[in-house]
Amino acid sequence: MIEEIQRGTFLAVFEFSPFGSLREYLTIYAGSYAGLSSEEDLQEGIPPVSSGSELSMDLNPSVLISFCKQIANDMAYIAQKKVVHRDLAI
Fold first, then answer.
1. Whether 46 contacts 59, CB under 8 Å
2. I need a surface site. Which of 25, 51, 60, 70 has the fewest CB within 10 A?
3. Under a CB-based contact definition with an 8 Å cutoff, are residues 29 and 46 in contact?
4. What residue stretches are annotated with the Protein kinase domain (predicted)?
5. Residue 49 contacts by C-beta under 8 Å, 6 or more apart in sequence?
6. Domain residue spans in the chain?
7. Which of 11, 28, 29 is nearest to 83 (CA)?
8. How far apart are the first and last CA of the chain?
9. Considering the chain, what percentage of its residues have pLDDT values greater than 70?
10. What is the pTM of this model?
11. Cα separation of 54 and 41, whole Å?
């Protein structure tokens, strides 16, 4: 990695989350998702996270499932490209 930094090919990416992190949301509302089993359950909204801002976001379970699929696909992609992610490194 030192060589990449010296060549100027090192890139640091940071998240921008004006509504708070997905991790915070799932930690606060984990119990709200337990026991969901039907399509109707997936369409119901879950209360928004209070992030100390006037802005908040209401995420229903189907949106969160979509996020999970996207994250899994992205993790596979960066592993294939031999990218080291700070939160995923073992």
1. yes
2. 70
3. yes
4. 1-90
5. 19, 20, 24, 25, 28, 29, 56, 57
6. 19-90
7. 11
8. 17
9. 61
10. 0.54
11. 27
